Amino acid sequence: MEITFLGTGSAYPTPTRGASCIIFRNDGNYWMFDCGEGSQIQLMRSSIKPGKISKIFVTHLHGDHLFGLPGLMCTISQNCPDHSEPIELYGPQGLRRYIRTSLELSRSMLGFDYVVHELMLTDIMYPPDWKDWKVDHESQGPLHPNEKLGENIVPDEQGVWQVFSDATLTVKASWLTHRVPTVGYVIEEATTTGKLDCVILKAKGVPAGPLFAKIKAGESITAPSGEIILPKDVLGPAKLGRKVVFLGDTSNSENMMSISQNASVVVHEATLENEMHENALEKGHSTPAMAAEFSKGVNAKQLILTHFSQRYRTVTQETNDEETCKSVKKLQDQAKDIFGDNVLLAEDLVTIPVHRTTKQCS
């Protein structure tokens, strides 16, 4: 399991930082989180093949998280003509209309089908000034020729969407405070069954095969002697699954706390330094202290900062004026003051592994 950062800058892409885009990989799954302008260029610079992407999760409909999406879909179509499985997209209400309209107005046909699953919004999820420029998020007209109708996913009473689930991974989302409706996503890996002690089973006369599989699945079995063997007698401790939290732009992440507890990794924006706290709030963004407080509050093992204002130079970028062109390392230091040492700075085209916790289920 690993996270590759394709774009770590805020607002717009620059020669040193792309707009927001992340690839999450687990086994053979490649999932994209946000797709700002220029993301496909960053993707081409990486070792990740566009045709591997099967799901795309969008946190909100601001351009620096979204404008690269129609172009990416067209590029995948041109470069991967054998892409047989539909690409599934998830995001706040309005994503379906945006994708459909962009592809239709440009008369873009794709070599694969796509599905947009929308996270339905409630009144509390809109910013207070939404009524001043209210935009209709409802998808209109017929489906695009390559579009299959997706689900409208309704949040529960706690404001949590059950986004996706299979035998290995579960994805949930909850809402964040920003200038447009915004969500954060939590990916949780299933707990893995402990190692089977084949030596004990064979000593009891149990042949390898279906009975091994049965007790591995948690069922009791009967040995040839008639002895009942319980799973706890031959299975080692189960391994806890990993949990990765991706937050969109946010000036208040408290609604994400319940589903983010004990995260292996929190990826949190830190657009501006602590001294610019009021400016950050006004623009719907976070400081390193805000990111650190959230991560500490959910007992996260690691915090990765991203979505940096382009005013900050990268760690390796040289400058003749360090006073006015501050290093992004200042943001890392401010987060460490609260969270501790395990704070990383996301960098474009850098991959960070998600390690398993050493703790095991009892």
CATH level 3 topology of the largest domain = Metallo-beta-lactamase, Chain A
Main sheet properties: 8 strands, mixed
Backbone structural class: alpha/beta
**First-residue to last-residue Cα separation:** 23 Å
- Work out the strand percent: 15-25%
Number of helices: 10
Rounded to an integer, what's the Rg over CA atoms? 23 Å
Share of residues in helices: 10-25%
Q: Assign the CATH superfamily of the largest domain.
A: Ribonuclease Z/Hydroxyacylglutathione hydrolase-like
- Shape label: globular
- Unreliable spans: none
CATH architecture of the largest domain: 4-Layer Sandwich
Q: Helices and strands in order, then pairings?
A:
Layout: E1 2-7, E2 21-26, E3 29-35, H1 39-45, E4 53-57, H2 69-79, E5 87-92, H3 95-105, E6 114-119, E7 147-153, E8 160-165, E9 169-176, E10 182-189, H4 198-203, H5 210-216, E11 221-222, E12 228-229, H6 231-234, E13 243-246, H7 257-260, E14 265-269, H8 277-282, H9 288-297, E15 303-306, H10 329-339, E16 343-345, E17 350-353
Parallel strand pairs: 3-4, 4-5, 5-6, 6-7, 13-14, 14-15, 15-16
Antiparallel strand pairs: 1-2, 1-17, 2-3, 8-9, 9-10, 10-13, 11-12
Helix pairs in contact: 9-10
Which short descriptors sum up this protein?
single chain; 362 residues; alpha/beta; Metallo-beta-lactamase, Chain A; 2 domains; 8-stranded mixed beta sheet; 7-stranded mixed beta sheet; 10 helices; 21% helix
In short:
Its cofactor is Zn(2+). Helices cover 21% and strands 25% of the residues.
Question: What does this entry look like structurally?
Answer:
By secondary structure, the protein is an alpha/beta fold. The chain has two domains: 2-191 and 239-353, 4-Layer Sandwich (Metallo-beta-lactamase, Chain A); 198-234, no CATH class. The chain is 21% helix and 25% strand. It has helices spanning 39-45, 69-79, 95-105, 198-203, 210-216, 231-234, 257-260, 277-282, 288-297, 329-339, and strands at residues 2-7, 21-26, 29-35, 53-57, 87-92, 114-119, 147-153, 160-165, 169-176, 182-189, 221-222, 228-229, 243-246, 265-269, 303-306, 343-345, 350-353. Strand 9 (169-176) and strand 10 (182-189) form a beta hairpin. Helix 9 packs parallel to helix 10 (329-339). 40% of the residues are buried. The mean pLDDT is 93. Keywords: Endonuclease, Hydrolase, Metal-binding, Nuclease, tRNA processing, Zinc. Its cofactor is Zn(2+). InterPro entries: RibonucZ/Hydroxyglut_hydro (IPR036866), RNase_Z/BN (IPR013471). One of its GO terms (molecular function) is metal ion binding. Homodimer.
